[in-house]
Specification:
The structure holds two protein chains of two kinds. Chain A is mostly beta strands. Chain A is built from no helices and eleven strands. Chain B is built from no helices and eleven strands. Classes of the chains: A mainly beta, B mainly beta. At the A-B interface, strand 6 and strand 10 of A face strand 4, strand 5, strand 9 and strand 10 of B.
C-alpha cells in the first residue's frame, strides 16, 4: 500500500534548538519525496524535494531507502519556521501529478 | 506570474445539492490536480487533468468528477453532497516540461455542507 507516515502531530522546540521532523514511506514504485510547508494563512508550498538535493531555509532531508525514511532536519530552529509541514511522495515516472501526503506535523518554535 | 486561483473561496451548501468549484492554473501550466483536505483524513488526491484528459484518479466515489478546458482551467463537481464532503478543496498546477516538476497550490475553496 502507498503510504506516508509522519508520527508526530506536534513538535515543539525552542529557538536555536535542532529540529527533526520524521517521515516514513511505503511505496513499491519509484518514489520521489517532497516536503511541503504551510505557514499561517498562506498556501501550501514546496519546501524541498529529494531529487534536487537542495537546502532551503537551512532545512535538509536525506532519503534513506533502506529505512524508507525522508526526515527533515534543521540544526538551529527559528521562530519563523513555525508552520505545518507535510511529507509527500509521487511516482516520478507514472503518476507525477498525484501526491500522497502524510498527516502533517505542526512545528512550533518558541522564543 | 499570477498564482493559482480558485473560486469561490467559501461556499455553503445543503445536503443533496451539487457544487462546482473552479481552478485557474498558472499561465503555461497544463496539468491541474485536485485534493481534498479534512482534519480527519488530511490531504487526499482526487484527480489530475492534463490537456483536457484525466490522467490519474484517487479513491473517491463517482459523485466527485472533474473536467479541464482547452485553456487549462479546471472545474470539479460534487453531486448529491453529504455532510462528510465538508472540506478545503485545493487545486495545484504544474509545468510538465520542467525536469523537477513542482505543484503550485491555490488558496483553496472551503466547502461547508449543512
Amino acid at each position: 500500500a502507498q503510504r506516508v507516515t509522519q508520527p508526530e502531530k506536534l513538535l515543539s522546540v525552542f529557538k536555536g534548538a535542532p529540529v527533526e521532523l520524521k517521515c516514513n514511506y511505503s511505496y513499491s514504485g519509484s518514489p520521489e519525496l517532497f516536503w511541503y510547508v504551510q505557514y499561517s494563512r498562506q498556501r501550501l508550498q514546496l519546501l524541498l524535494r529529494h531529487i534536487s538535493r537542495e537546502s532551503i531555509k537551512g532545512f535538509t532531508a536525506d532519503l534513506n531507502k533502506g529505512e524508507t525514511s525522508f526526515h527533515l532536519k534543521k540544526p538551529f530552529a527559528q521562530e519563523e519556521d513555525s508552520a505545518m509541514y507535510y511529507c509527500a511522495l509521487s511516482d516520478i515516472y507514472n503518476q507525477g501529478g498525484k501526491l500522497i501526503f502524510g498527516q502533517g506535523t505542526e512545528l512550533s518554535v518558541k522564543p | 506570474k499570477a498564482g493559482v486561483t480558485q473560486t469561490p473561496r467559501y461556499l455553503i451548501k445543503t445536503r443533496g445539492q451539487q457544487v462546482t468549484l473552479s481552478c485557474s492554473p498558472i499561465s503555461g501550466h497544463r496539468s491541474v490536480s485536485w485534493y481534498q483536505q479534512t482534519p480527519g483524513q488530511g490531504l487526499q488526491f482526487l484527480f489530475e487533468y492534463f490537456s483536457e484528459t484525466q490522467r490519474n484518479k484517487g479513491n473517491f466515489p463517482g459523485r466527485f468528477s472533474g473536467r479541464q478546458f482547452s485553456n487549462s482551467r479546471s472545474e470539479m463537481n460534487v453531486s448529491t453532497l453529504e455532510l462528510g464532503d465538508s472540506a478545503l478543496y485545493l487545486c495545484a498546477s504544474r509545468f510538465l516540461r520542467e525536469v523537477f516538476y513542482e505543484q503550485y497550490f491555490g488558496p483553496g475553496t472551503r466547502l461547508t455542507v449543512t
